[in-house]
């Protein structure tokens, strides 16, 4: 009869270990999967809310066009050479190509400015010697 309380004590200890391991797994899953997904969702929502008239966008269906009108939850996009106008929900915007091009230009300019600065420093060192 003395063995039963010992078995219950050992079982509750393993239960705490199991709960601790499960909690640790949840924390790891949160930082590996849930948090990055939420960050991506916030970035996408910011991109969709910053769509302006004149931006070139790609929809989730693959339609590429230029934004003609922006309303609260609806955008009107002009597509193709025949300039057909199509109405889309804002959530259907997949990529803002104009914003991506601007970002790429800024990155290239920053990179060239950094390279120029490094070159000037190297030239200054050569002149000192």
Describe what you observe in this structure.
By secondary structure, the protein is an alpha+beta fold. The protein folds into two domains: 1-49; 52-129, SH3 type barrels. Helix content is 61%, strand content 21%. A five-stranded antiparallel beta sheet has the order 4-3-2-1-5. The protein is flat. The N and C termini lie far apart (90 Å).
Give a quick precis of the structure:
61% of the residues lie in helices and 21% in strands. It has 129 residues and is an alpha+beta fold.
Q: What is the topology?
A:
Layout: H1 3-49, E1 56-59, E2 64-70, E3 74-79, E4 84-89, E5 93-96, H2 97-128
Antiparallel strand pairs: 1-2, 1-5, 2-3, 3-4
Q: Which fold does the CATH topology of the largest domain refer to?
A: SH3 type barrels
Listing every helix as H and every strand as E from the N terminus to the C terminus, the arrangement reads: HEEEEEH
CATH class call of the largest domain: Mainly Beta
The overall pLDDT, averaged over residues, is 86
> How much beta, percentage-wise?
15-25%
Structural class: alpha+beta
Distance between the termini: 90 Å
- Stretches where pLDDT falls below 50 for ≥5 residues? none
Global outline: flat
What is the domain total for the residues? Answer: 2
Number of strands: 5
The description of the largest β-sheet is: 5 strands, antiparallel
- Helical amount: 55-70%
For the structure shown, list the relevant keywords.
5-stranded antiparallel β-sheet; SH3 type barrels; single chain; 129 residues; 21% strand; alpha+beta
């Amino acid at each position: 009869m003395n063995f039963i309380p010992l078995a219950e004590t050992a079982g509750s200890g393993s239960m705490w270990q199991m709960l601790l391991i499960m909690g640790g797994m949840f924390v790891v899953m949160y930082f590996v999967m849930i948090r990055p997904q939420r960050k991506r969702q916030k970035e996408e929502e910011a991109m969709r809310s910053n769509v302006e008239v004149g931006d070139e966008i790609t929809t989730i269906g693959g339609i590429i066009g230029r934004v003609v009108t922006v309303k609260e939850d609806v955008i009107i996009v002009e597509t193709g050479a025949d300039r057909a106008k199509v109405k889309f929900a804002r959530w259907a915007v997949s990529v803002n190509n104009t914003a991506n091009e601007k970002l790429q230009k800024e990155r290239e300019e920053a990179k060239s400015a950094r390279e120029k600065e490094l070159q000037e420093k190297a030239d200054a060192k050569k002149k000192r010697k």
